[in-house]
Amino acid sequence: VQLVESGGGLVQAGGSLRLSCAASGFTFDEYVIAWFRQAPGKEREGVASIRIDDGSTYYADYVKGRFTISSDNAKNTVYLQMNSLKPEDTAVYYCAAGPKYYSGSYYLFDGGYRYLEVWGQGTLVTVSS
Description:
Blueprint: E1 2-6, E2 9-12, E3 17-24, E4 31-38, E5 45-51, E6 57-59, E7 67-72, E8 77-82, E9 91-99, H1 104-109, E10 118-119, E11 123-128
Parallel strand pairs: 2-11
Antiparallel strand pairs: 1-3, 3-8, 4-5, 4-9, 5-6, 7-8, 9-10, 9-11
């Protein structure tokens, strides 16, 4: 059971990046995939989630309209397209998987992260001003 993130890097403010989260070892469409981030010295915060079987998504207010989460079920991969990046988006981004019994919103915002079963190693996004 594994999640592997990729796609992080250094980008100027206003630029774009696409993160990938490749899953293996579990039944992809039985899960919700959520993205979190953690900036230096700050708490982890939820970013976006997608329920794989029906494609329903949730976004944090601070990324709504700029980030888009999507999945390619044939590749067992979830993407996070990040546009109009700001310096405050600088963080290590993690993807995590949890059973679809719980909603993406619960995982992101209501303490449900404790029920996420697997986490990736993280990928660093740095946005320069």
